[in-house]
């Protein structure tokens, strides 16, 4: 049986589910509990290491954030958002689990699931594009994970193949919640105001690097609701088939211009018309005209797929990578 993993008591989890956790969390973890291995990667204000829990030998990724750097770069808010979202989301196969957080004088440590295959972007780049089978296989997992986070009142706002990690069993895990929007929940866990998504601006600082998946309403009106994640899903499906995202200019400015003018083309070679239909209905400038996550789930491309059968999504054999 899997080891019981302690997580600090979480205000977002209903009381009855916390008892187990409190019991297990009786001992706060620290750097001494882990044997640090190779560096896996580097972010703009973090370094990620492989690490083994000395007691149970379980392998994790530990994200180490330099306090000095975070303060200097004014990233405290984003680090807190990441921690709060991951705690609220708890455990879902398609989202990295945050098991422990601790700190010492110099650093903050986030102990998370390790994704040994790295980023989905690397896989797409290696293969050029993905087969229809592979695209559908990964997209089912991405959609199930996004549906779950939306149901918990979390809008990711920075979905892209770099933020989708892949495990050794070829299952995806969404990461990088630093730009997420956290909606208020009532005591029963229902989202209080689904429309309260334009009350706070998303500063440019949270979009380091690529701008290709940003929704037009964010660029034009600084507004970003659940629909902006669906825009990004449209961009990602396009990229699975074409190899590159639909909106890509020579500069960030030119990319933005293409996005707000909906300038994208399908290549001449064969792409199934159901796929084109799905993407075209996600890449709608007007957020209200965009397919919702439920409409995506019932789109023809997925046939009559039973989204309630989680084993079909998460325990199915991966198709040959091609
Ligand atoms: P930025 O903060 O600049 O947006 P980032 O989000 O990629 O960068 P990190 O989240 O610190 O920064 O990740 C740094 C690198 O480590 C990335 O290349 C990422 O693919 C890799 N990485 C992050 N988390 C994991 C994980 N859980 N398992 C495996 N690799 C990971």
Detailed description of the structure:
There is one protein chain. Helix 5 (about 130-150) packs antiparallel against helix 7 and helix 7 packs antiparallel against helix 9 (about 275-280). The chain has a five-stranded antiparallel sheet. A three-stranded antiparallel sheet has the order 6-8-9. The chain has a two-stranded antiparallel ribbon with strand order 7-10. The chain starts with 17 loop residues before the first helix and ends in an 8-residue tail after the last helix. It has eleven helices and ten strands. The protein has about 325 residues and is α+β, with helices and mostly antiparallel strands. The protein is globular. The structure holds adenosine-5'-triphosphate. Adenosine-5'-triphosphate (ATP) binds near residues 41, 43, 61 and 165. The site of adenosine-5'-triphosphate has 20 residues, from strand 1, strand 2, strand 3 and strand 6.
The kinds of small molecule bound in this structure are: adenosine-5'-triphosphate
Mean pLDDT: 88
What sequence of helices (H) and strands (E) makes up the elements?
A: HEEEHHEEEHHEEEEHHHHHH
Main beta-sheet strand count, sense and barrel state: 5 strands, antiparallel
Number of helices: 11
Question: How far is it from the N-terminal to the C-terminal residue, by CA?
Answer: 34 Å
Residue runs with pLDDT of under 50 for 5 or more positions: 1-24
Beta content comes to 15-25%
Strand arrangement in the largest pleated sheet: 1-2-3-5-4
Class by SSE composition: alpha+beta
């Amino acid at each position: 049986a899997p080891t019981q993993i302690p997580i600090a008591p979480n205000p977002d989890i209903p009381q009855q589910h916390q008892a187990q956790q409190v019991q297990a969390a009786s001992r706060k973890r620290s750097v001494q509990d882990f044997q640090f291995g190779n560096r896996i990667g580097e972010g703009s204000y973090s370094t990620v290491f492989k690490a083994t829990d000395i007691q149970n030998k379980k392998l994790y990724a530990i994200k180490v954030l330099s306090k000095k750097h975070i303060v200097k770069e004014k990233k405290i808010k984003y680090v807190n958002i990441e921690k709060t979202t991951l705690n609220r989301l708890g455990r879902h196969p398609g989202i990295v689990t945050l098991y422990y957080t601790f700190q010492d004088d110099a650093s903050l440590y986030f102990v998370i699931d390790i994704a040994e295959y790295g980023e989905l972007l690397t896989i797409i780049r290696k293969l050029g594009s993905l087969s229809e089978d592979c695209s559908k296989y990964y997209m089912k997992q991405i959609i199930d994970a996004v549906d779950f986070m939306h149901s918990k009142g979390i809008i990711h706002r920075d979905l892209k193949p770099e933020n989708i990690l892949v495990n050794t069993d070829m299952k995806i895990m969404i990461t990088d919640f630093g730009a997420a929007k956290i909606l208020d929940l009532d005591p029963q866990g229902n989202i209080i105001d689904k429309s309260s998504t334009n009350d706070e601006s998303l500063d440019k600082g949270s979009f380091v690097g690529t701008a290709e998946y940003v929704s037009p309403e964010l660029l034009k009106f600084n507004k970003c609701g659940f629909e902006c994640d669906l825009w990004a899903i449209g961009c990602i499906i396009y990229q699975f088939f074409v190899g590159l995202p639909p909106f890509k200019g020579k500069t960030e400015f030119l990319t933005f211009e293409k996005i707000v003018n909906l300038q994208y083309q399908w290549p001449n070679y064969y792409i199934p018309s159901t796929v084109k239909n799905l993407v075209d209905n996600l890449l709608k400038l007007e957020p209200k005209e965009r397919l919702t996550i439920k409409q995506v789930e019932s789109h023809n491309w997925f046939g009559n797929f039973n989204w309630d059968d989680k084993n079909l999504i998460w325990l199915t054999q991966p198709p040959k990578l091609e």
